[in-house]
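Worked example 3. Consider a protein that binds NAI.
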Amino acid sequence: MQRLSSTTLGRLPVSVRRPRYARADVRNGVVHLGIGAFHRAHQAAVFDAALGAGDLRWGILGVSLRSPGVRDQLVPQDGLYTMLVRDGAGEQAQIIGAVRDVLVAPEDPARVIAALAHPDTHIVTLTVTEKGYCIDAATAALDRGNADVAQDLADLSAPRTAPGFLVAGLAARHAAGLPPFTALSCDNLPHNGRLLRAAVIEMARAHDPALADWIAQHGAFPQSMVDRIVPATDPRDIATLAETTGLQDQGLVKTEPFLQWVIEDRFCGPRPDFAAFGVQLTDRVEPWEDAKLRLLNGAHSGIAYLGGLAGIDHVHEFVARADGRAFVEALWDESAATLTPPPGLDVAAYRGQLMARFTNPALAHRTRQIAMDGSQKLPQRLLAPIAIRRARGLSVDALALGVAAWMLWQRGLDEAGTPFTVDDPLAAVTAARLDGVTDPAAQVAALMAIEAIFPRDLAEDDALRATLTGQVTRLARDGALATLRALGEAAV
Ligand code: NAI
Ligand code: CS2
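Given these inputs, the predicted complex is written out as structure tokens:
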């Protein structure tokens, strides 16, 4: 079967929306690091809208810092792919034309640096996952134990990390007398812009203090809150689309109608008229970030570990259960009390909207996908609200149950006894801590002592340790579903 491409595009059914702008005239104003599914269904859709409105500066050069997978999906298709927007009732297909090329950094790092240093490049967006920022959570500085970071600190001729590439690109711009680009983090990290800025300046300072000062003075690293649920594409999604269109699209992404992007309006160069495409520009992103990370993502992580242990494969199946919904609502009651909602956010309405989004069966969002990289996600999603509540003497039963389920998950065994690989950059650390430890109290203590995950206040909190030990004991003995039921009964 033929692939989707510029030459086959015309064969698609008329119902499929497609680029109406002259792709040949588009310039690459954006370099994107980490071209996974999320970028293609979120930022790329917004830049595509800017192109569609006639501002042809915002084509995207995608970069994979790791594998060639997305390049091999998109380049034979001239960068074109389908964005399938699904709610329970139906599906809308749109061809996104904003991505014009994809580079694989390890194959040709010099080309990536040249792209970053190109005069047309104004914005560098990133979705490199939480671990891609290479920050040691315990010190808030670059993780010098990471071999790729050590390599980039020593030599930037062929960078390996996202901060390394940004510094190499900025150094080339500085040398050429060009202004810096705006580096715009789109990962689910609190203060993502501030973290990225600190990582880049630390990396630059190791090479050239004058460069670090130039970046600090002239560069821009806006915070941004990003939201759209984009589950990993399933091969069956590709097969089903091919049956209806007659073309194979290996770059397909599927998502929900909802899209939110809140950006701190601090760019050091040109940007699209974001507000015209539904993006919120503000001077305070943190309250939006906190609400999203603690409510949406906090619930997601709780669902992922409890559901994963119980053999519930998808988010919508978890919230279809009365006890699953009750758990999510209990977690939200706890987390919502820790928020200072931004003007314009009605938390009750937001919660209702989130539950409706979780219920969307057409997304088939896998609990296993969300369970990945828990060590990087727990702090901002569950531990931050726990710390606030503990400091105020408030209960943390639902939030802690999410953490307890994560603790059991580290054993790599679900309740049916099926082993799985714990997919996490700290998996070897958690495995070593749990090695030979069978007593729940000792397991909880061993995991709470990991400084890169648990802040000291929490690690030394005896009452929290007791709560977690009780929950781990119960989860291991009765299973996740019975534990959830008990939580619901206790709340009545
Ligand atoms: P994905 O698995 O499709 O893509 C992940 C990308 O990150 C790939 O390009 C991969 O090569 C790169 N990457 C992974 N580890 C890296 C590292 N250590 N250094 C550099 N690059 C690395 O995942 P997806 O769905 O695109 O999500 C990526 C990130 O986007 C998430 O971690 C999250 O922070 C953010 N996000 C995702 C949402 C979603 O629903 N999928 C929604 C909101 C934010
Ligand atoms: C999810 C998020 O994979 C995960 O950890 O919680 O990627 C979630 O889908 C997005 O943040 C929604 O915006």
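Take a moment to read the result before moving on. Residues 188, 227-229, 296-297, 300, 369-370, 377 surround D-mannonic acid (ligand 2) (CB under 6 Å). The mean pLDDT is 97.
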